[in-house]
Structures are given as C-alpha cells and as structure tokens.
C-alpha cells in the first residue's frame, strides 16, 4: 500500500478476524525498530483514551518476525497527500478543508491533553478513512490541468480522517531542542534551535490547511535560511526577541539582528523562489471564495512565530472558521 524510509505497508487478509488490515513491516535496523516500539506504546496509550477510536489509527496487534517489527492496523483509505497527487494537486473545497481541519485539531487537542506531541504532522500522515470519491467538473482549469481534457476533479465522498505514524511522538519535556518534523511543516523555533513544545504541532496544522486549500506545500524548500526567508515573505518579519536567542547552529542565519537575506542566499534561484511567494492573505484569496476572511484569521493564529502566543488546538477549535454557521448556504 505504500513505503517509506521505515519499510513498507502491505494490505493483508486477517484470517482470524475475517477482515482486510494494513501491516507496517519495519526495517530491521535498530533505529527503526526503536521507533516502531515507541509507536506501538503510543498507539496502545492513545487507543485506551480514544473513545470510539475515530481520531487515531487503531492498532490491532504487533509481532516480531525475523527481526522486523510488524504492526497490524485497521485498513484505511489514501493519505491526503496521495489524494492530492492523484488529483493533479488540485485543491480541496473549503467546506471539506473545514471538516478535515476540525478533526485534525480535535486529534491534536486530544494528544496534547495526554501530554503527547506528534512532531510529524503532514498530509502523508493523515488518512481518509474511505477510498471512495466523486468526480465533479473543475471550472478553475489551470496550467496544471492535464492535456487529456479531464476537467474534473475528485472530491472524497467522506471527510472522515485519522492521524497515523506515531513513531516520532514524544512526551512533553523541558528544553527539547533536537530537530523534529518533516521540513515543509517545521516550525521556526525548531529551525532556530530555541526549544519546542506542543505548539510545533500547531504550526504544522497551519501549513497543512494552506496546502489543502491551494494544492501545494506552503514552504517548498530544502534549506534553513531559505525556509526562514520564505516565512518572512509570507508572514512578515521574524520577531527580534527570537532572532536574538538563536542557538549556535542557527547563528549563521542572522546578521545585525535580522535575517541574513538575501545576502546569505545560496543561489540566485533561491532568491527567486522566495521573491515569487505571495503574502498569506493573497495565497488564500486566490483559492477560497467564501469564508476566506475567517480562514486567514485562523491561519494567522496557527502560524504565529512566537510559540508562546500561537493558538492552542482547543483555542483554534473555538475559532469562527469552525463555529460560525456559514449561513447554511
């Protein structure tokens, strides 16, 4: 069904339960085995508290086979990333983004209440529970539309999602500074080495919601300085008090109290990639017609640079983007 650096996921028939399951077969190296055992422990922990089991993927069982940890899961549908990819990276309708966002934040709030931080939230780690979709005409025909005239886009039949991959999940501890999260979804405090906590998950959720609305990752980059420069282009300047406290590794990104950009850029292409990014409100308004204002306001709360003032998952769930009636169109 898929593969990653950790190993492969196979679709299997469980002869005892008479159902299809997904089995994650983990590579036999120590670091992957260790992560798999953390994942098993976290899944059991989450399963105990997740009434109805509709936030996180359910673990059925696990076993060790020829030095491979094998984790048996309920079978779910495609990841949000796979769905986007098969849909030519066309965006999701705003009402679907709202439903997915609400469930995602509910899962994050649930984890944070248990003092757990996921640390690797991204569209690949959020699965639709069903593979079913409908095709609707796509009036926003863009340069990305295929040449074969398929002016239709897929919409999932159900907005139900579950979060997966708890191999990097950790308990909240003071002063965690090691690097977490997949690059595009990594919070500024992680890059600057300022220590991180629950709010690194919230930043990732903000990046994911923009991606679902626009069809592409917000920060498409592979290097730290360029990443920080992209943040400034989309969200405005990084706060002085954060730049003053950067750790030894990150000092090279700052000069005279501001980001060393564009002077420190690694190439002309890098400067170009940053300069062609739009401000956050413009990115959203290009793709969202109604309720764009509420969404922009929510994203500005999720993507606050200072983790101290970033929204919590519970605060985000009370935001008008989720609570307003949306005039029952």
Automatic annotation (TrEMBL):
Organism's domain of life?
Eukaryota
Spell out the molecular function terms from Gene Ontology. Answer: ATP binding; protein serine/threonine kinase activity; protein serine/threonine/tyrosine kinase activity
The parts of the chain that form a coiled coil are none
Q: Which UniProt keywords apply?
A: ATP-binding, Kinase, Nucleotide-binding, Serine/threonine-protein kinase, Transferase
What is the reaction catalyzed? L-seryl-[protein] + ATP = O-phospho-L-seryl-[protein] + ADP + H(+); L-tyrosyl-[protein] + ATP = O-phospho-L-tyrosyl-[protein] + ADP + H(+); L-threonyl-[protein] + ATP = O-phospho-L-threonyl-[protein] + ADP + H(+)
According to the entry, every stretch annotated as the Protein kinase domain falls at 1-322
What Enzyme Commission number(s) does the record list for this chain?
A: 2.7.12.1
List the record's Gene Ontology CC terms alphabetically: nucleus
Q: Which family does it belong to?
A: Belongs to the protein kinase superfamily. CMGC Ser/Thr protein kinase family. Lammer subfamily.
The name under which this protein is listed is dual-specificity kinase
Q: Which organism is it from?
A: Capsicum baccatum
């Amino acid at each position: 069904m898929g593969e990653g650096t950790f190993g492969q996921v196979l679709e299997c028939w469980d002869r005892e339960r008479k159902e299809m399951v997904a089995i994650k077969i983990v590579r036999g190296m120590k670091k992957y085995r260790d992560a798999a055992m953390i994942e098993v422990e976290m899944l059991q922990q989450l399963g105990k508290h997740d009434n109805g089991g509709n936030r996180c993927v359910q673990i059925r069982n696990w076993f060790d086979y020829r030095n491979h940890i094998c984790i048996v899961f309920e079978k779910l549908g495609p990841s949000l990333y796979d769905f986007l990819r098969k849909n030519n990276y066309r965006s999701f309708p705003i009402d679907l983004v709202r439903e997915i966002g609400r469930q995602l934040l509910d899962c994050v709030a649930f984890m944070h209440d248990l003092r757990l931080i996921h640390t690797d939230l991204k569209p690949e780690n959020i699965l639709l529970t069903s593979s079913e979709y409908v095709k609707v005409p796509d009036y926003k025909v863009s340069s990305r539309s295929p040449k074969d005239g398929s002016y239709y886009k897929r919409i999932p039949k159900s907005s139900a999602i579950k979060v997966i991959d708890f191999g990097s999940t950790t308990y909240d501890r003071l002063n965690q500074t090691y690097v977490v999260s997949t690059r595009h979804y990594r919070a500024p405090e992680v890059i600057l080495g300022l220590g991180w906590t629950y709010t690194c998950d919230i930043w990732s959720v903000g990046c994911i919601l923009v991606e679902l609305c626009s069809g592409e990752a917000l920060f498409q980059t592979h290097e730290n300085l360029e990443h920080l420069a992209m943040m400034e282009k989309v969200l405005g300047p990084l706060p002085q008090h954060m730049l003053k406290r950067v750790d030894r590794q990150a000092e090279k990104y700052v000069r005279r109290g501001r980001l060393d950009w564009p002077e420190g850029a690694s190439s002309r292409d890098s400067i170009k990639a940053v300069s062609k990014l739009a401000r956050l409100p413009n990115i959203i308004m290009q793709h969202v017609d109604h309720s764009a204002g509420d969404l922009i306001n929510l994203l500005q709360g999720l993507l606050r640079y200072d983790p101290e003032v970033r929204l919590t998952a519970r605060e985000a769930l009370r935001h008008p983007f989720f609570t307003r009636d949306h005039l029952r169109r």
